[in-house]
Design a protein that fits this description.
By secondary structure, the protein is an alpha/beta fold. The chain has 13 helices and 27 strands. It has helices at residues 167-172, 174-180, 214-226, 245-253, 294-310, 326-339, 368-379, 385-398, 401-404, 419-422, 427-439, 473-488, 490-494; strands at 15-19, 22-30, 34-43, 50-53, 55-59, 63-71, 77-87, 92-96, 99-101, 110-114, 132-135, 184-187, 191-194, 200-207, 230-235, 315-318, 344-347, 364-365, 408-410, 443-447, 496-503, 508-514, 519-525, 531-533, 542-544, 548-553, 557-561. The chain has an eight-stranded parallel beta sheet with strand order 18-17-16-15-12-11-20-19. Strands 3, 4, 7, 8, 9 and 10 form a six-stranded antiparallel beta sheet that branches. A five-stranded antiparallel beta sheet has the order 21-22-23-26-27. Helix 7 packs across helix 11 (427-439) and helix 11 packs parallel to helix 12. It is globular.
């Protein structure tokens, strides 16, 4: 038994209340080391013990994650517990708070003191499996032009040029978005700010006049809601622009400014220089806000609630969320949830979001770890099936199931090269990645234009004008078909996940999604040859064509994407 790999601590995420009477217990061990793991628990002061067999939730290359969910007859409190471990050599050991031993040590057991309501990880129900669509407003549509595009619309995007996209343009494209199957729009900043991206905010209470008016934003959300589409806005609260009134006051008055505590000044006088104050990415035009300052917290709270009330938005994407003051994030979460429990807080991070999400943080996060795996496997074909499985399982192991189903699974964004560019222009690689995205657990996110074959290197190349007159209609049909497939099957939105096969030799990767009434198997063949694949429970092998995905529904019905030219729906 590999003792050094065995890990459990008696708090989140290893002990995770799902409700006050229902708790998930988790323990980690070296992969394939244990043959069985049993949770043993009892109420403090009582003699009767209960036993519950644990199962493997996910497995990375090195770890198995064992879990058991216990439903208690009353609110879970003063619960003593430990683990009985049996390895594959027949050795039995017991895990308590002081480590492994040959016999159960009840006096040194772990203890769950109270399962409080605020300990429960709860995300808005609608976010689980939701299909997002990200729009960069300045580059989406002009509006009021009857679809005509100006001569410069397809100019090479730079960090300084403006193409003229508006909120009215997005309103006019809502029928297109509805037809695509989008369920939630994420708009990068729409408030008054510097630069075409508007991440250097000047006025949080005003829509940037280049985009339109406050009434345009209200109308956009109303019409989107009428079509069953939600809208979330970008909240840039980690930093501001240099023309934000409090920072301008600091620059003018220096130490005498009443806003000195709103920022992180390093030296006076304040000049536009990263040496003078802290700024995001050491970029001097974006000074950092001090979220630990009570007046800043209150100001941001007012911004959050103003737009939730005024425009009836459905939540916020929090820019650079992993750099925010944690106590401020918790406070803003409390305020947002009190105003609307269905409002989502989606945090930006480029790595592990464990610290960011949870009962006192963001509901979910931008899943760039997932995106990195998709680029490596489908776009660049630089990792094996085994490594793909390891990377995906490692991501799933980090978060509770409710969070995994709400994670923002993107193939690209305004901060990355477009996926088709990463794939060297190979549309089949993009199609397979689109299919994988719509079949995998989480909330798949489409970056505007990817669905019609737009290309572009990283910022600013990925921020080109939406190619309305240059659509790849075959690719668009594929994307629509995959979104429709996902929306038809609850197992794809909320079902469990299990890898069935990661075959490096034949380049086959297969997994299943399971719901209450259906089981869906996806088989990806990245090889240049056809292969027959055997699965337990099937009477005959599954035939897969080169560079294709086959989707098997209910074990009998099949949807085959062989050539990439069509999607045949199940009968």
């Amino acid at each position: 038994m590999k003792a050094s790999a065995i890990r459990h601590v008696s708090f989140y995420p290893f002990v995770q209340p799902l409700a006050r009477k229902k708790v998930q217990f988790m323990m980690e061990a070296e992969r394939d080391d244990l043959a069985a793991c049993t949770l043993i628990w009892w109420k403090r002061g009582e003699q009767d013990t209960q036993r519950q067999e644990m199962t493997i939730r996910y497995s990375s290359r090195t770890l198995d994650q064992w879990t058991a969910v216990v439903s208690f007859p009353e609110e879970a409190h003063y619960i003593r517990y430990g683990f009985e471990l049996l390895d594959r050599n027949g050795t039995r050991r017991y895990l308590s708070a002081i480590g492994l031993s040959a016999a159960q040590r009840e006096r040194e057991s772990f203890e769950l003191l109270q399962a409080n309501e605020t300990d429960v990880v709860s995300v808005p129900d609608w976010t689980q499996g939701c299909v997002y669509y990200q729009i960069f407003p300045e580059r989406y549509d002009l509006g009021g032009t009857d679809g005509a595009l100006p001569a410069g619309w397809h100019a090479e995007p730079t960090r300084d040029n403006y193409l003229g996209g508006t909120l009215r343009g997005i309103i006019e494209r809502l029928p297109y978005l509805c037809d695509l199957g989008v369920e939630c729009l994420y708009l990068t900043p729409v408030f008054a700010g510097d630069f075409n991206h508007k991440y250097a905010t000047v006025d949080y209470f005003s829509v940037d006049p280049q985009f339109g008016s406050e009434q345009d934003l209200v109308e956009l959300v109303r019409q989107a809601h009428d079509r069953g589409i939600r809208v979330i806005l970008d909240g840039v609260f980690n930093h501001t622009g240099i023309r934000f009134a409090p920072f301008a006051d600091l620059m003018e008055k220096g130490r005498e400014s009443r806003y000195t505590d709103w920022f992180y000044p390093k030296q006076y006088p304040i000049r536009i220089d990263a040496a003078c104050y802290e700024c995001v990415g050491d970029y001097p035009y974006m000074p950092r806000l001090n979220g630990a300052e009570p007046q800043v917290r209150a100001y941001v709270k007012d911004v959050l609630l103003y737009w939730m009330e005024r425009a009836q938005i459905d939540g916020w994407r929090l820019d650079v969320a992993d750099e925010l003051d944690r106590h401020a994030l918790t406070y803003w979460r409390e305020q947002v949830k009190a105003a609307g429990r269905d409002a989502v807080l989606l945090g930006e991070t480029w790595g592990d979001a464990t610290r960011l999400v949870g009962p006192d943080g963001a509901d979910c996060a931008m899943n760039y770890l997932y995106r990195d795996a998709m680029v490596a496997y489908f776009a660049r074909e630089s990792i094996s099936e085994t490594e793909l499985d390891d990377r995906l399982q490692s991501v799933l192991m980090r978060y509770p199931d409710a969070v995994n189903l709400a994670m923002y699974n993107c193939l690209g964004s305004h901060d990355t090269a477009r996926f088709l560019t990463e794939a060297g222009g190979d549309k089949m690689r993009l199609k397979l990645a689109m299919a994988f995205q719509m079949l995998f657990p989480g909330a798949p996110a489409v970056y505007y234009g990817d669905e019609i074959g737009m290309t572009g290197e990283n910022d600013p190349g990925c921020r080109g004008g939406m190619a309305w007159d240059r659509m790849d209609k075959e690719l668009l049909r594929w994307q629509k078909g995959m979104i429709a497939l996902r929306k038809r099957h609850e197992a794809l939105r909320r079902g469990g996940y299990r890898t069935l096969l990661a075959d490096d030799r034949r380049r086959i990767f297969a997994f299943e999604r399971t719901g209450e009434r259906e089981r869906i198997v996806a088989v990806f063949n990245m090889d240049t040859a056809a292969h027959d694949v055997d699965f337990a429970g099937r009477a005959k092998p599954v035939h897969t064509s080169p560079r294709s995905v086959k989707i098997i529904i209910h074990k009998e019905e099949e949807a085959s994407c062989v050539s990439g030219k069509y999607l045949r729906s199940p009968r």
